[in-house]
Amino acid sequence: MKEYFYHINPAIYKAEPGLQTIFRTTQLSPYRNLYCMIPILSLCFGLGLGLPLLWLAGWHLQHSVGLFWAIGGAIAGAAVGSLFFILFLGVLGTVVSIARGLMASTVVGVASGIMNSILFCVILGISQSLPWLNVETQPGVIASFALSFGLAIGIMVGVTIGGVAGGIVGLVLGSTGSLIVGMVFSVLIVALSAIDIAAEHTGIVFGFVFGLVAIATGGAAVSLVKGIFSSVIISAAVGVAVGFSSTPAVGLLTGAIAISCSLRLPFYIIELVWAGCCPQKCNLAAWDELLVIYLPGSRQQLLQQIQQDFDHGVIQLCYIACNPFQRWVAQSALKHYLIHHPSPLHELHGLLTHPASHAYVFAPLSHHGWLHIPAINYVLLGELHDRWVNCTTDPSSRLFEHLIYQISRCLRNNSQTPLTEWARILFQLQLAEISQQKLSLRQIAEIQAIAAQLDSYPGGAEICQMFDVIHIFLKGDRLAPLAETVSHTDLRFLRKKDALNPPALEILHQLQTIAIDIYTSEQTSRVNQQAALLRTTNTLNLLEEKLDAHVITPERILLRQVIHHWQHLVCIASGEIGNAQLIQPIPNPYVIGNPVTGSLFVGREDIMRRLEELWLPSQQVPSVVLYGQRRMGKSSILHNLEAILGDRAVIVDFNLQVMGIVNNTHELLYALAIEMYDRLPPPLTVTFQEPQLSQFMQNNPYQSFLRFLKHLDSVRAGRRFIITVDEFELLEQLIEANVVEQRLITFWRGLIQTYPWFIMAFAGLHTLDEMRQDYWCPLFSSVTAIPVGPLSFSAVQQLI
Predict the structure, then answer these.
(1) Structural contact between residues 624 and 637, judged by C-beta atoms closer than 8 angstroms
(2) Measured between alpha carbons, how far is 756 from 778 in angstroms, rounded to an integer?
(3) Where, by residue number, does the polypeptide cross the bilayer (predicted)?
């Protein structure tokens, strides 16, 4: 059901709680079909099961039956289920989360609708009367039963959700539930007394239905363990309440039946018989996700399934691992399989890369759950080295699950081998990636020591060599010596045909190719060195994208650390090459004047051709930075861009010497929006509203500018907008003066990456690495640097 809700509309499933989101669900046909299905399903079951039971009851009691009253009773019962559905969806969907409201309300609505529809169909069909709210006969019993039922609902929901929200929701649902149950029970108790139904029979039916509904609601709306514990406790409380409102014997009977149904004993008996008669048909431990008690033979059956068909066996293994009561079965079978397999490393790698192991161990129902509920492969790695993994999102569920783990610990396979130590390393690597931790060289050395113990396994030598190479790739703190070391490293093991992890080895091979390119360029001119560093930057960015797509988590974190380390060294090396040029401008005795255009603009054909090559492609194109001394012609290049790009691009002049006279970030982004609006072709300004200063001053300026870009994207008619930012060093002065926020730089970087048609062309005195503050690094790691030097001799002749 969670999968159904999620695939209808993931945005609604993850949305914040609120009535507006609930009303949004009514606009989608799958949700409307579900809402209509609840009363229809309740009515169909009520008539389909109620009428045969009505006939049997009438025959047993030798009492006439009324078909009209039976149909009316089934409709009334279905209406009660719909009331509970609306109640739970409205309260939980408004206070807790939409997903939890949908889950709990659907289960409660269908279960209570079917239960009441059958009860009303049988009882009213026999009594043939409608004692509506006739409480004169037994008002104390009705009040006690209604209050006990409402109290049970309130406590169960409150414990299930937890915290202040749980108390509020439990109070609302409990009080409202008491009113509904009181109204329903007032009808039933008079009808029951009229046809002389024994109280014990009522207690049996009520305990049976309440126990099943409680565990189904708890298991669907929260975690299975918390649902079991809360439903057992509340079932006992309901038994006491029923005993108080009736007799102790009836209460004890009701509570015992409710607790047994909370543990799903009726289904367990059926499954036990089925497993004994047809042991090879299917693994019921994987089929029944709410199974509490161990089914004999399920561990051996799972082991055989993995041995016979690894792909199918892993799917069954993942289903069982999601159930904390049966997780020890998955751990024991998996560990036994890996220990006795001739190639356990290959099988473990196959498990970690299997799509089924990437699913959540428990489908999230809240924003906190999306962030903290682990994947199944992460849980299995923890189980392999005998470590409990928290799969919950609240303290009470954590306590219950840890208790179950401790109880079942003696049933697990606790043998220790080099493979379990390796599982511990993979678990720590995955944990480091989740928490975004950087591994130290000491930790990597520890990984090398554990990997060396795998040499006796097939594929173990490859793992050991791979981590040795990664350690080498991370040791250097200077690019040139590191490139020399890496270029001479023996990586012949990368070319093995039966490699354990080909994507990771391919990335190592490409990193060595980068190192060879850098090492070779060290013996050439600065121009060639800069070109090699530019190629390295582009290749490292592509490798990181490939890393996320093709390499699994344990190796991914180390390879990403290598890539980031090399990117940092490339940034330093680029700065060292740039420092060979003069950082400060040389005083120039010649007054050149304003930027030139037309025939006076000569000698920059190479730069203009370079810009045209960069910006002609129709896909993602880079932003650029032009840097050089004053009076080199940077501003003239920016002013002549329109001549080479024509109407394919809109050039927006955003000179910070003029536009930088602002008081805050709000005014700066508003000024940029106005400049872009003013550069629109006249036909577009008719349909496109001019941005208002109040929109930027009264609201978040970043969100206001994003909204402006989204509207502009809809009318720009394929044109690109190139924002030329001259004298961009002035922005650093504004940041240091606390006029403009530092995060503006990161915001611009995000715009460049999100909108391919939004391009920025910076011009200034400094190279990227000469900027004094670190906040420039995120922006300038995404742009292409183009130096602007003095004119050539032939260009000077032409100009003169």
Answers:
(1) no
(2) 17
(3) 34-55, 67-92, 104-126, 146-172, 179-198, 204-225, 232-259
pLDDT in tens, 227-236: 677 667 666 6
CA-to-CA distance for 12 and 601, rounded, in angstroms? 57
Model pTM? Answer: 0.57
109-126 pLDDT, tens digit each: 787 787 778 777 877 777
Residues 257, 261: Cα–Cα separation, whole Å:
6
**Is residue 591 packed enough to be buried (19+ CB in 10 Å), middle (13-18) or exposed (0-12)?**
exposed
Cβ-contact 330, 346 below 8 angstroms: no
* Rg, Å, the chain Cα set: 35
Q: Measure the CA angle with vertex 343, ends 341 and 347; round to 5°.
A: 85
Distances (CA, A) of 655 to 33, 109, 543: 58, 64, 36
Let me know the angle formed at the C-alpha of 540 by 763 and 506, rounded to the nearest 5 degrees: 165
Query: CA-to-CA distance for 128 and 114, rounded, in angstroms?
Result: 20
Q: How far apart are CA 710 and CA 693, in angstroms?
A: 18
Six token digits for residue 96: 């807790």
Q: Which CATH superfamily is domain 598-799 in?
A: P-loop containing nucleotide triphosphate hydrolases (3.40.50.300)
Euclidean distance between CA atoms 290 and 364, whole angstroms: 17
Residues 6+ apart with CB under 8 A from 391: 223, 324, 361, 362, 373, 374, 379, 401
760 beta partners = 723
Closest Cα to residue 371, out of 379, 360, 380, 382?
360
Angle subtended at Cα 108 by Cα 104 and Cα 113, rounded to the nearest 5 degrees: 150
Residue 499 has pLDDT above 70, yes or no: yes
Question: What gap in Å lies between CA 623 and CA 783, rounded to an integer?
Answer: 5
- At residue 610, φ and ψ (nearest 5 deg) are -60, -45
Quick count: other Cβ atoms within 10 Å of Cβ 775? Answer: 15
Is the pLDDT at 669 greater than 60, yes or no?
A: yes
Q: What angle do CA 491, 495, 500 make, to 5 degrees?
A: 100
Which of residues 5 and 163 earns the better pLDDT score?
5
Cα–Cα distances in Å, from 209 out to 123, 144, 629, 711?
16, 19, 83, 55
3-state secondary structure 421-485: HHHHHHHHHHHHHHCCCCCCHHHHHHHHHHHHCCCCCCCHHHHHHHHHHHHHHHHCCCHHHHHHH
Is the backbone of residue 18 left (phi > 0), alpha (psi -120 to 50) or beta?
Answer: left
Residues counted in the chain: 800
End-to-end CA distance of the chain: 79
List the domain boundaries for the chain: 1-130, 132-263, 280-415, 460-578, 598-799
CB-based contact 293:244 (threshold 8 Å)? no
